[in-house]
């Protein structure tokens, strides 16, 4: 195995007074992308250091979607972090889609031979932290002022401050896993980077409540009052969303108002069995589609939300981050194990080809299920026609199921 950078830690002699480390891959961001990459590399004997701006508790306090594609399940198995997910996750063979008084089911297993796993992203992240800690993995929290230097050379390095002290990591590669608001993407020069964005004119108001889910499978609802989603984490923890105005704030919505609105947006037989209770989390997320190209600049590679965002309809955020990690991990293995740059050279093109398909699906499913403020009567009839086509056409259901369970890597 190629091993041109062994992890070492020492302190510079004055006058710089700064800590200097050396590793193979510096990973910016300790969200699910960064942690999964770090753990997969570790399994193959490749060293990394993760730099995280926040604390572990902060990262674990974020509530995100909870539907995992089979590609991510395989990566978790390969990373050795799948045990709790296999024991506590819920395989789902299909999903329900409602519009008006109609409801139909898309059967994933029948159409694709695969299911998805309902297991919260927060739990995936928790399992990854546990594995990195058990392996003595280097994660540095509360870092500030991260700067990626010389990424277009063969000797990149990263500087940062922690507790007011400056430090530097020399490395072979930098993985930018620092989410939409990180520094990695903007390290790629403006004249190289192209960005594509679509903002949706509504948000999702989500609540988590310690109540049994209304249904054992997810329900995506297009109602005349707007979109709603009934999801879950376990048999006594439900996650529900309703489309809301971007000018709303969570405090505008009492729990009672939320439950009443949700009831109005889902089929009457479901509304009747909805069990309500106090919310334990309530937040509003805007909806955005965003892609940056390329996803590689020199020895810097972007992964996950740092490079792309999808609206949450279809739960592709974490799953698309995972496919990036898959391509980058295999490219880095190719480099260290086979002395080949083929995998890292094709990283951006391969990752983006799949990213755009996930973008298309998330945009399509969002467009199908939401009410738009400027929607005409014609636009609405087209939505209904498309929903009726999906309800009655096997090929359309198969296309939806293939995308939902995840296109192959
Ligand atoms: N320096 C170090 N860490 C940073 C910096 C920075 N300058 N900027 C951001 N970070 C950290 C954030 O604190 C966060 O913990 O990077 C991490 C990025 O994590 P995520 O935003 O969760 O992104 P990612 O790991 O790509 O996960 C993708 O998670 O965010 C959801 O919707 C997203 O489901 C998708 C998945
Ligand atoms: C969730 O459970 O939070 C969830 C599920 C499916 C989605 C989005 C969010 O499409």
Quick gist of this model?
With 409 residues, the chain is an alpha/beta fold.
Please tell me about this protein's structure.
The relative contact order is 0.16. The chain has an 8-stranded mixed sheet with strand order 8-7-16-17-18-15-19-22. The chain starts with 7 loop residues before the first strand and ends with a helix. The chain is 36% helix and 30% strand. It has 2 domains: 4-90 and 118-196 and 289-364, 3-Layer(bba) Sandwich (FAD/NAD(P)-binding domain), CATH 3.50.50; 199-287 and 377-405, D-Amino Acid Oxidase, subunit A, domain 2 (D-Amino Acid Oxidase, Chain A, domain 2). The protein is of the alpha/beta class. A hairpin with a 2-residue loop joins strand 16 and strand 17 (226-234). It binds adenosine-5-diphosphoribose (APR) and P-hydroxybenzoic acid. Adenosine-5-diphosphoribose binds next to helix 1 and helix 10. Adenosine-5-diphosphoribose (APR) is lined by residues 28-34, 51-54, 59, 64-65, 121, 143, 146, 177-179, 181-183, 304-305, 317-318, 321.
Morphology call: globular
Task: Give the amount of beta strand, in percent.
Answer: 25-35%
Mean pLDDT: 95
Radius of gyration: 22 Å
- The rounded distance between the terminal residues' Cα atoms is 25 Å
Which secondary structure elements does this structure contain, and how are they paired or packed?
Blueprint: E1 8-11, E2 19-22, E3 25-28, H1 32-43, E4 48-51, H2 56-60, E5 67-68, H3 70-78, H4 83-88, E6 90-92, E7 94-99, E8 102-107, H5 108-112, E9 116-118, H6 121-134, E10 138-140, E11 144-149, E12 157-162, E13 165-170, E14 173-176, H7 184-187, E15 194-209, E16 219-223, E17 226-234, E18 237-244, H8 255-265, H9 268-273, E19 279-293, E20 296-297, E21 300-302, E22 308-309, H10 317-338, H11 342-345, H12 347-369, H13 377-392, H14 394-405
Parallel strand pairs: 2-13, 3-4, 3-14, 4-10, 7-16, 14-21
Antiparallel strand pairs: 1-2, 5-9, 6-9, 7-8, 11-12, 12-13, 15-18, 15-19, 16-17, 17-18, 19-22, 20-21
The protein binds adenosine-5-diphosphoribose (APR) and P-hydroxybenzoic acid.
